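Postdoc handover notes: sequence design on the structure in folder B. Input tokens:
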């Protein structure tokens, strides 16, 4: 059989062990540079808190901004190592105008939804609030931070370079919400780590493999050579902003093309090779080449590939799973009819190829990150993971675990990946509790 464009893509997207090892090593070096405040593609942003102990207690509000769904929740932390509970929760879909218009529109919308939530549930007491803000933020302490840049196609104006909590507080005041105090600001990876740490003292990393990609890691404070204020603890969680990693990556022609089509060209190279927002776009670009050069679909571009975001993660998952009935059902939705064998094979291969490369890259980044971590046990470490790719994409978690074993199997240490849902809600509450405790006990924050 003749070699096809999709065969070439599959070959270009392979990530052999030697390449994963090179990436792991480069990750360690970039982490060191980031921790020393030198130029690095990994920002290594201090989170100003250590992993939870399980003793955190109380009711906390949590706000979660990081994707097109915005969430408000009330979380109960029972303490004594018992599992936290979501008492109430509401999700709201943000509009294009809210995520890319004036910053005040975004923060007012969030304040409005919070007000509605408090009213709907008759929460009238004063409450401390943990704010998960899942973008690169340089924290100034546990409860304030400056947005360094937007990612994931957010672009609200007048926010980059400004203090997030101040902007949000001003919006709360405009909406007359007076009984809420924002006491902690955190990244979703940090929340994910914390949501697991309350139950498992071996948790040293939090990973998001969803719309975006990132890792938080617990490091010994002595490794941090740049300014971290008057933080008193011996270990600190660091929001790596690992999606920005850009060294030793085997970027292909398609990766470069995708980058040019995004709203933030030249940034987030690892994220664009790995996360759920971009994988379907890589498949689309591969298919466009196959349509042009191999005359798939009779050389005519179907509507679903003509537009940038019509082909999505849920479609990819059906092709990856590979069941004929599943593929036919999705194909009827996407193309109006089941696909002929060549087109079907091409899509299955393209989807599996980009998904597999993502999992292997994630393995190299996670093992690289662990090379600088602080562990509570020498024999085992837990990595808390959340996000649609890890949770839902067929075979993804298995590929990731296998690639981690390939890279780290000889170390004698067991790396456990644990699906940890709702880091942004429960985790934010835990951080608010940790912040409250350390403010009271140690005078920090
Ligand atoms: C953001 C990170 C975030 C990740 C996962 C990335 O685009 O820069 O801050 O943790 O997405 O949501």
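Designed sequence:
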């Amino acid at each position: 059989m003749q070699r096809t464009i999709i065969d070439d893509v599959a070959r270009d997207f392979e990530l052999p062990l030697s390449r994963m090892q090179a990436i792991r090593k480069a990750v360690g070096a970039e982490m060191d540079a980031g921790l020393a405040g030198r130029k690095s593609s990994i920002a290594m942003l201090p989170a100003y808190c250590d992993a939870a102990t399980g003793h955190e207690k109380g009711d906390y509000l949590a706000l979660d901004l990081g994707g097109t769904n915005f969430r408000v929740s009330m979380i109960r932390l029972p303490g004594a190592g018992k599992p936290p509970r979501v008492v109430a929760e509401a999700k709201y879909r943000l509009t294009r105008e809210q995520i890319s218009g004036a910053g005040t529109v975004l923060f007012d919308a969030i304040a409005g939804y919070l007000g509605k939530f408090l009213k709907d549930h008759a929460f009238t007491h004063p409450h401390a609030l943990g704010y998960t803000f899942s973008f690169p933020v340089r924290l100034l302490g546990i409860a304030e931070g400056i947005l360094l840049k937007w990612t994931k196609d957010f672009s609200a104006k007048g926010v980059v370079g400004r203090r997030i909590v101040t902007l949000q507080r001003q919006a709360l005041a405009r909406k007359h919400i007076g009984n809420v105090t924002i006491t902690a600001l955190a990244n979703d990876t940090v929340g994910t780590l914390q949501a697991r740490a309350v139950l498992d003292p071996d948790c040293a990393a939090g990973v998001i493999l969803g719309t975006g990609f990132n890792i938080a890691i617990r490091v010994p404070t002595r490794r941090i050579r740049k300014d971290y204020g008057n933080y008193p603890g011996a270990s600190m969680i660091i929001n790596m902003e690992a999606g920005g990693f850009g060294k030793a990556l085997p970027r292909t022609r398609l990766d470069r093309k995708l980058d040019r089509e995004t709203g933030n060209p030249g940034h987030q190279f690892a994220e664009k090779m790995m996360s759920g927002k971009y994988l379907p776009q890589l498949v689309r670009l591969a298919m466009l080449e196959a349509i042009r050069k191999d005359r798939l679909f009779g050389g005519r571009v179907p509507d679903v590939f003509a537009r940038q975001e019509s082909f999505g993660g849920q479609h990819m998952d059906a092709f990856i799973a590979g069941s004929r009935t599943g593929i036919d059902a999705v194909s009827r939705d996407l193309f109006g009819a089941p696909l002929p064998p060549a087109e079907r094979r091409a899509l299955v291969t393209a989807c599996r190829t980009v998904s597999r490369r993502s999992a292997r890259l994630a393995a190299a980044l996670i093992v690289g990150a662990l090379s600088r971590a602080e562990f509570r046990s020498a024999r085992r470490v837990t990595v808390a993971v959340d996000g649609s790719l890890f949770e839902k994409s067929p075979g993804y978690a298995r590929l990731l675990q296998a690639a981690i074993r390939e890279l780290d199997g000889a170390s004698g240490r067991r790396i456990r990946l644990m699906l940890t849902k709702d880091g942004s809600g429960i985790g934010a509450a835990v951080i608010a509790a940790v912040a409250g405790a350390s403010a009271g006990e140690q005078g920090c924050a």
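Context for whoever picks this up: The chain is about 45% helix and 20% strand. Don't rerun without checking with the PI first.
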